[in-house]
Fold this protein.
Amino acid sequence: MPTFDNTDLLLPPEPGQRALARELYALAAEQPIISPHGHVDPALLAEDRPFPDPAQLLIVPDHYLTRMLLSQGVPPADLGVPTRDGSPVETDGRVIWRRFAAHWHLFRGTPSRLWLEQTFRTVFGVHTPLGPATADTLYDELAARLAEPDFRPRALFERFGIEVLATTESPLDDLGQHAKLAADGWGGPGGRVVTTFRPDDVVDMEFEGWSTNVERLGELAGENTGTYDGYLAALRARRVAFIAAGATSSDHGHPTARTLDLAPQEAARLYDRGRRGEADPADAEAFRAHMLVEFARMSLDDGLVMQLHPGAVRNHNRWLHARHGRDVGGDVPQATEYVHALAPLLERYGNDPRLRVVLYTLDEDAFTRELAPLAGGYAALLLGAPWWFLDSPEVLRRFRETVTETAGFYNTTGFVDDTRAFCSIPVRHDVARRVDAGFLARLVAEHRLPMDEAAETIVDLAYRLPKQVFNFGGQNQ
């Protein structure tokens, strides 16, 4: 990983604990990065082209940044975010950068500022502070770095110390970029860049174009998705293709964590209603819930680890969605219930250690109340790291404080960055490692954990756990 110039960043302020945390962090910092879930475009590494200008790389695609400026009245089009109808947006990278720099004060105290400043310093070696007066200087320094061969994607991948990076694709993806990576010795089973099976667009009847997507699924899989049985066969076939491209996990981004174990005939009736365009929201929710149980059944057959990312109200900002589409900052969290929602799946498969279901949440209250007790009581369940609106130093600390007493360290997965921002990957992992070092140092200082066990634990959290949970060292270790 890149070298960080502030050795005490995020470490405890108390001198004794800070000294312990430094020792623990040093062990974590030298570990390779396992990035088991994220949204980096595989074309970035398959094509290995130079990055575009600093604004196109760091600002335009980052909805953490653009949504903050939208909240202050700066429309995404002024920051270069593409529109759905192709209407004009700002394309001059320097203009976008200046506009962003003029609003940099909005990010004081946010994780976005922490990640971006650390990216400037540790990835690009640029220490000019961002602000209106320095915008052009910083832009030019970053642009000069991006023109160097050492700052192309594959070179950075090497320098970041990434051992495995998982991207996320729909079953409708032909996996062509992953085929190119495999041909270059970077992809395929056991590869450095692998895919993840994300079937939301062919499972969620409320997804735009769902019926058309299901038809396309059948064409790709060579199955008749006019029937429910054919639909299941098509999903199984695509999972086989994804596993051949290196996938070790699936991912499911449902509005809720609800599961249902329906009889095949009832599931087929729901499916047929959806195909006829007659399904209502309750039908769509029931079908999503049933399919989670169906995917658990498939995972027992093919070994894919299941990830469940529930709780986001997608496209809550309807104006933003209408103007710019999905995944541009218009989503918000909602309260999410797990105990009753997951009961049907757990009743069927929760005690089977062959199944791994990694649970995430956007509802921090659920860590203590529901998720830690569930993961601490079912062989199939593991807790994913704080995600999206919660991936901040404060919540990472609270996560360890709230779940460890009930679930321990070893019913968690280690850190999962879940990012589209390739250049922020080492920074995000470094933040998590520093927070874990501080938490473990406190346990040592309170005489609750010997230093040798804390040292073993931090290496497990940084490296061994994610590698084992997501089967990057062999199937079902």
Observations:
- Residues 314 and 331 are 5 Å apart (CA to CA).
